[in-house]
Amino acid sequence: MMAKKHIQLFGIASLVTCAAIVVGFLGLILFDLAWKGGIVLNWEFLVRYPKKGMTEGGIFPAVFGTAVVTLLATALAAPLGIACAVWLQEYAPDTPLTRLVRASIRNLAGVPSIVYGLFGLAVFVEGMGMGMSVLASGCTLALLTLPSVITTTEEALRNVPRLLREGALALGATRWETIRAIVLPAAVPGILTGIILALSRAAGETAPILFTGVAFYSRYLPASVFDEFMALPYHLYILSTQHHDPVAVRPLAYGTALVLLALVLMLNSVAFVVRARHR
Amino acid sequence: MMAATCVQQHPVERITVKGSDTEVNLVLQLAEAFMERHSGVSLSIAGGGSGVGIAALMNGKTDIANSSREVSLAEIDFARRQGVHIVPTIFAADAIVVVTNPAVGMDSLTVAQLGNIFSGDIQDWAAVGGKPGAVSLYGRQSNSGTFLYFREKIVGRDFSPTLKQMNGTAQIIEAIKNDKGGIGYVGLGYVARPDGALHAGLRVIRLKADATSPSYSPLDTAALTNGNYPLLRPLYQLTNGIPEGVVKQFLQFEQSALGQKIIVENGYLAAGPGFIAQDKPSQTER
Amino acid sequence: MRRRLFWDRFFEKSFSLSAVLAVLILGGIFGMLLYNGLRAFGSIAPGYFFSLAEWNPAAYTAPSYGIGAMLTGTVLTTLGAMVFAVPVGIGMAFFVSEIAPPRARAMLKPAVEMLAAVPSVVVGFLGIVLVGPFLAGLFHLPNGLNALNGAILLAVMALPAVVTVADDAIHAVPHTYKEASYALGANRWETLVRVTLPSCYSGILAAVMLGMGRAIGETMTVLMATGNATAFPNGFFDPVRTITATVAIEMGEVPAGTPHYFSLFACALVLFLLTLIVNVLAERITSNLRKRGQ
Predict the structure, then answer these.
(1) CATH topology of domain B12-92+233-278
(2) Statement to judge: residues C30 and C121 lie in one domain
(3) Is residue C50 part of a domain?
(4) Which of A44, A216, A243 sits opposite B45 (nearest CB)?
(5) What integer is the mean pLDDT of A234-263?
(6) Residue B196 confidence class, pLDDT cut points 50, 70, 90
(7) What's the pLDDT score for residue C199?
(8) In terms of domains, do C25 and C86 share one?
(9) Mutate which of A42, A220, A237 to disrupt the B interface (most B C-beta within 10 Å)?
């Protein structure tokens, strides 16, 4: 009996250690960035343009660029994704074809982001002639987040109780009226969560925008969707690998990382709150 | 500060510049100075390597391609088939500096030794008279003009596959500082800091043509202009056709007194006419 | 009534149209990869492509397109990541679902989601500034940019996937199994190891596969922190170049239509198929789980 108790203690202790390791990683990331990036973080950093070859000044164009391209990507992906999910969930018959489509979409969510980047380069930048632009990057990011928007929307729709639908139909509503007035409103929190998470993913991605529109330095903000733009993830990548004086700009790199992380975590927290409130 | 936050989009002429990592910071400084004087122009700059710039020019995706190497005949041909007429302009010159970690214990090398080191034929520093230890190679990637230029001029064959291909010159310097057997090649502009001091923790290797010749340091301006230091190269900016309009204005600004001052301050060399005559272009088919 | 029917049919058609559009676009990705990737094999022999020949498209003499070394680099970093992520991730999943009090669980689950949200470029950045010097100091290496660094970073990225799916799998184990075990006198640990764990083997496997898929497809993290040497790696302390990094590095310098261009698509195709296989397997296992849970 004693041996069993010891084994249990040891076993549970090792599980606690595992959890501690994972939480430790998160803590390490947060603290290191906050500590070393916090020094440069102030209002100026966020609203000023970079100066003196990026060794001074702020990261405003990168913040702006990230915001614009992410919003564009979501504006493109959300309507298409939601419509597709509605069809899959509400209209499509349960045939092997439908199941194949659903499975394919789920698997596409796991495709490496660089593959989307290559596709974006070949099709949007070259094939459709958009050139390196906000538009090309926005489309590429939209494609990247499309599968997950479809999947989360489908799940939100699935969670709406069948009885609600059947009640509406029993009262004489058409399918569209049921969807518009009953199902969609009930699924809004879930759909919103999915969209915010897609936004957060798009904001943090580098590979898809690498060759579809992002620039190292641009004096003015993009005036149209056909211009190049600066973005936070790429700015961090450049400051830490290709800048001519990485040691000098290390604090700025930390600051950029902190801003990017804060943005992504903020979006995720909003999504979390939306989901928790309507659980 | 309010001016900075207000997004005033006055009508701007935009110039896209892409390419060489060696040139990007220099061109960035030049662009900043240029834009201070011409508020109606916006330059958008990206690095990625000379190969990226040339490809972008061929695909019509950039106005100016920065290239730290010559365009090959094959590339000019390929471009002509896309309807792009590549016109090179030399705007500055650069010396390639071979740096090692001081622990390696070498001061100078012959060109042949350098070639053998980077091709992987020499793997231990003792073979060339340094402190015994493994040779640890650092370089760029194939999209880099510096990579191709160095391979062409010094190695004469493929680099050793153990060459660690870093994403940028700065990573090479960082790595060598921490690597007791490290050796790499970088542009002069990266080794000299803006205030004139050298990066601490690096040793600049003097090069000599063969074992009996005198060795020359890239930090010796006379050796550079006399052609005694072998690794001197012009830096190009390529355009589709003869430059005109704002692109021409920018290129002219680079040749102005202020432009040349910025170039020299950053550790590069002015592209004087005497120098251009020195470098004999190599005809490479790629 | 006619008007309502009209709108009903209109929206039905619109929705099905968008679904078709979405599926076409997503399918188009695979189609384009296949088309461009296969064109590479017009000039490169498939056997040669997958061999241990060097990857040197810009070679001095003849270009060479062997992905053997890079495939090994991908495998090395992924397996290294899994060796760490699997035990720790599953351990944490068990802790969160079986041992932890509800309040701890309520804090741990969001923590895992936060870790999942960290962008890959941030993880890569920390690989350069934090993990690299740490490894260099610990193992007396010249620099810390090698396969081990990549493996550690990939483990951090794969952990959330492993934990979340494993947690789902553990929850799917019916209460009755555990209660029967307790009734027979087993303590918590014994129940966990001898009853719960075996009941969700397939779910755990799915978690591992999903984590692996995440690790294989990572680009920025490995690009920044693994040293990018194309030589065949001889161990975890050697720099490696993964397939994802190669595509990211060379994508910008290839003029369209050259063998080099198509070879990058072939690389992307290989990546796509690898992650597809892994994800399909995981998918198969989890859908079986869901059916059983109902």
Answers:
(1) D-Maltodextrin-Binding Protein; domain 2 (3.40.190)
(2) no
(3) no
(4) A216
(5) 85
(6) low
(7) 85
(8) no
(9) A220
